[in-house]
Amino acid sequence: MSETPAPAATPATTAPAAAGATTNPLAGFDRTTSVWGPVTMTAGMAAMLIGPVLMVVFGGYEVSLGTLVAAVVAIALVMGVIWVIEPISYFPILGAGAMYQAFLIGNISTKLLPAAVTAQASIKAKPGTPQAQIAATLAICSAAFIHVAALVLVIAVFGQWLLTIVPADLLAAVTRFVVPAVLGAFLMQNIIGNWKQPKVLLAGLAVGVLVIYGVVPLIPVLAPAAPLFGVVLTVAVVMLTFKAKPADADRA
Amino acid sequence: MEDTVPTLAQTVNHPLLWLGAVLVLIVILVQSVVYLRAAKAAATSVGMPSADVRTAFRAGGVSAIGPSIAVCLVALALLPLFGNPSTITRIGLIGSAAYETIAANLALGTMGSGLGQPGVDGNMLVTMLLALAIGGSGWMVVTLIMTPIMKRGMAAGTTTKTARKRSARWALLPVAALIGAFFTMGLKEVAASFNGALVFGTSALLMLVLTLVAKRLDKPMLLEFALGASMIGALAVGYLVS
């Protein structure tokens, strides 16, 4: 095996002599994913948009530009921060190639990362090795197939049947309570995950109480913008109180 | 017929929406096959045994089954409003049942309605779906732009002292934004109704208990199911009290 003429199998003992590309055993993988990652992600974006767009162009449905912009802005104000922070925070964990997988199919922290970590543990791959990266990619591919299979079975094939056997009042309850049922667990997950940032948690809680029990009852028109107030005020409080530390450090 | 607005029921299973859903699934499969082949070729070049390749692939798939089922169960709740094809499109790509629910509610809110409310017609649904699709593109556009930049930045690999100092502060910004947004949104649900508050509290409590149990028993696998289990438990409480 070690005598195969493949250049990547050569041990890196002659590092200065080796050309840049051949020293990286994953150069071929990086080349493939740096081309096909963006291509497939762009295709996914197009596929996501094409249904509703065709409905407007050929389906005879009317969408007012003003309403659409207002809806997108409403989503962007609350979620826009996540669009930016998630890719940046996951990059060091995923690496460039897997970024295009993860942000195509989503469920990164709840599905893809656990799958990748489980796969790495199952073959005892050390973090940071090519084996670990390959195991993570294999796991994410596998998770993607499960993801598609679950969608086809539970939603496309048996979706309507499941809806008929599940009592209507149960589905009504699920639809009605799904938002608080998700938010409770998700907020707790973030509280536990940021337990070592008590100042941020207290600021978020204080701002939330102020906005929901103070501002919104006084000025009900502002209710839709409540999450934005939550974001801006909490960020402002945290950033302003953070100033103390560098100032102390400069004095010392 | 031409002058009246199509109803929600007439719209949700439109063939054009199905076309989009099928294309979404095809793109995911094509990408996975491309990556799988690249990973297998890389495994060969680093001398990784094919048994390890099979084990890693299987382990990843098995651990994804639980979360996938949890995601689809919640997606089932979106089915009456979104319809089959749009549920597949929205849940199949980036985003989550949680995100889509919140975003759909925000989008319908700007049209004076809300998720699950009776007044939603075909035009409102299409507007909402378009807004959700543009919203979902947010992650992808940022990923397409930022990944090559971060890759270069990582390759440069130099972190000066001032950069590290500044980054400690900037690292707090997304945390603060997230915490601020979700405390406010959570309290909004708590303030809305007693039952909503009960469901919210149950969900948070279950998550806390499951996380503590997972840590005590040293079973990180439990954490994979924690979000889904908390959601289902909280929904059960909501069903019982409503």
List keywords for this structure.
heterodimer, A: mainly alpha, disordered N terminus, B: 242 residues, 9 helices
Quickly give the structural class of chain B. Answer: mainly alpha
Strand content of chain A: under 5%
What characteristic shape of chain B results from the CA principal axes? globular
Assembly type of the shown chains? heterodimer
Mean pLDDT of chain A: 79
Number of strands of chain A: 0
Report the end-to-end length of chain A measured between terminal Cα atoms: 59 Å
Gross morphology of chain A: globular
Strand content of chain B: under 5%
Structural class of chain A: mainly alpha
- How many E strands of chain B? 0
The ordered string of helix (H) and strand (E) elements of chain B is HHHHHHHHH
List the helices and strands and how they pair.
The complex is a heterodimer of chains A (252) and B (242).
Chain A: H1 20-23, H2 27-57, H3 65-105, H4 108-122, H5 130-157, H6 159-165, H7 168-193, H8 198-218, H9 226-242, H10 244-251
Chain B: H1 8-11, H2 15-45, H3 50-82, H4 84-92, H5 97-110, H6 122-156, H7 161-192, H8 194-216, H9 220-241
Helix pairs in contact in B: 2-4, 3-4, 3-9, 5-6, 7-8, 8-9
Architecture overview:
The complex is a heterodimer of chains A (252) and B (242). With 252 residues, chain A is mostly helical. Chain A is built from ten helices and no strands. Mean pLDDT of chain A is 79; it is low at 1-22 and 244-252. With 242 residues, chain B is mostly helical. The mean pLDDT of chain B is 82. Chain B starts with 7 loop residues before the first helix and ends with a helix. Chain B has helices at 8-11, 15-45, 50-82, 84-92, 97-110, 122-156, 161-192, 194-216, 220-241. The interface between A and B is large, with 165 and 166 residues.
